[in-house]
Amino acid sequence: MELNRNKVEEYALDHWYDFKEYLEHPSISAQNKGINETSDWLVQTFKDLGAKIATKWDDQGGNPVVFAEFNGHSDYTVLFYNHYDVQPPEPLDEWKSAPFKPTEKNGKLVARGVCDDKGELMARLGVVKYFNEHGGLPVNLKFFVEGEEETGSQHVPLYVNAHQDELKADACIWEGGGKNSVDHFEVVAGVRGIVSFDIKVKTANADIHSSLASYVPNAAWRLLEGLGSLRDSHTGRITVKNFYSDIEPLTTDEKAAVDEMDFDEDNVKETYGLKRPLVTNHPREELVNGTTLTINGLSAGYEGAGVKTIVPKEASAKLDCRLAPNQEPKKVMELLKEQLRVNGYDDFEVHLNVAEDAWRTPMNDPFVQQALKTARVVYGPMTKFVPNTAGGGPVQPFGETLNLPVVMVGVHYAKSGPHAPNEHIRLSDYAEGSYYLATFLNQLGESHQ
Q: Peptidase M20 dimerisation domain location, by residue (predicted)?
């Protein structure tokens, strides 16, 4: 069928309100709020849109997965991944409107989760509704919508493994794509991995008067020294043995794509208010195929107002590593633990929080190439290909267990502010992204008649 761009985009703008209630549900997985209400709303919405199957899976534990299936005109099947949980809205005093009251202002739609990633699912639902009213879906669609992405998606591999038959498809469209810092659309084909963990050290049974710092050990200093022993302070390189060993070099095509990625250092510094120089001279390649060791937070001793002169009895830190494809999260954590032991810090306790593998679909996969070709028609020749995003997600089970090519395309832009107060998307991106998705699905249907 022939798609009229203006009509599709106008339809998207006229009908986002049909799914407004999705944004009103405070589905905060970290606080176990609104999970059942939101997943119930999704099931009913899928049914209202004519899904032949719309149900909740809860057989593998954790928050339920919502699964839906629609019939199309061809035998080609696209599986969508989204998540219905969101981050807590705090700090509330920094919001200019109520976080769970969707607000349209200056061409933007503001609400908690509208970027990450309820707005993207809303656009996908709107496209389904458009096709329902204009001749039917060009391909079969399946939806996998989970409720634990913001807390690590630890049950997703179990659900994917247990429901392989229901999830059979030809390709997967992920959440999280959009426009970069110079407003060029990006087609992304993977994610980096992550391992998140806590480190704790205890040097005494109780806090001690600081006058005795002359001879008693200080947990805060020991923690800092131990963490410092894992990194070369001059080069920034991680000094853990074999930390970089499993990283595979980019292919020639991937390297060329990375070299063409947009990266405006001045814009980045302004956006984040950076006070110090970048920590690498190769930010593009590091974002795609690099690995990190990041201190997320530190805690020790007295941190309140006024004076309390003590030697802390214990200290702790939260850390994460962002990992390149082929690096195994739990192996990396074991390497870190072993290096701490070798460095003389065998009294450090290390606790795993989250582990997710990286995944990258080959750039030359026909599905990836079709997504890129369509994007360059809809968004223009400055569309960029990114081998994988700098962030993570549970892509690996879909790529490996289900053997699907995966691309990420969506409706946000670089300043949407996911996880931050006043999270938003631009409605123009919502409309344009809806037209792109409708066109992509239409082309997939025409090529698989």
A: 190-342
What single-letter DSSP state applies at residue 326? T
Q: How far apart are CA 116 and CA 89, in angstroms?
A: 12
The model's pLDDT over 41-98, given as tens digits with 9 standing for 90+, comes to 999 999 999 999 999 999 999 999 999 999 999 999 999 999 999 999 999 999 999 9
CA distances from 102 to 17, 24, 120, 254 (A): 9, 7, 15, 39
Look at the chain and report how many structural domains it folds into: 2
Q: Which pLDDT belongs to residue 402? A: 98
- Report how far apart, in Å, the C-alpha atoms of 316 and of each of 40, 66, 238, 313, 405 are: 39, 37, 20, 11, 40
| Kind plus residue range of the DSSP H or E element containing 411 | none
In 3-state terms the chain splits into helix, strand, coil percentages (rounded to 5) of: 35, 20, 40
| Residue 270 forms part of a structural domain | no
Q: Distance of CA 240 to CAs 49, 227, 276, 287, 341, Å?
A: 53, 11, 25, 20, 11
* Domain assignment of residue 105, yes or no: yes
88 alpha carbon, distance to own chain's centre:
16
Q: What predicted TM-score, i.e. pTM, was given to this entire model?
A: 0.92
Residues 418 and 287 in one domain: no
* CB-based contacts of 411, cutoff 8 Å, min separation 6: 119, 120, 123, 178, 425, 429, 430, 432, 433, 434
Element (H, E) at 1: none
Q: Is the pLDDT of residue 1 over 80?
A: no
Terminal-residue alpha carbon distance, the chain = 12
Q: How many CB atoms lie within 10 A of CB 228?
A: 12
Q: Choose one of 356, 389, 421: the last residue of a domain.
A: 356
Domain membership of residue 261 (yes or no) is no
**Residues of the domain holding 205:** 193-256+276-356
Nearest to 356 by CA among 171, 160, 88, 78: 160
Q: Looking at the structure, do residues 334 and 364 belong to the same domain, yes or no?
A: no
Q: Is residue 264 part of a domain?
A: no
Instruction: CATH number of the domain at 120, please.
Output: 3.40.630.10
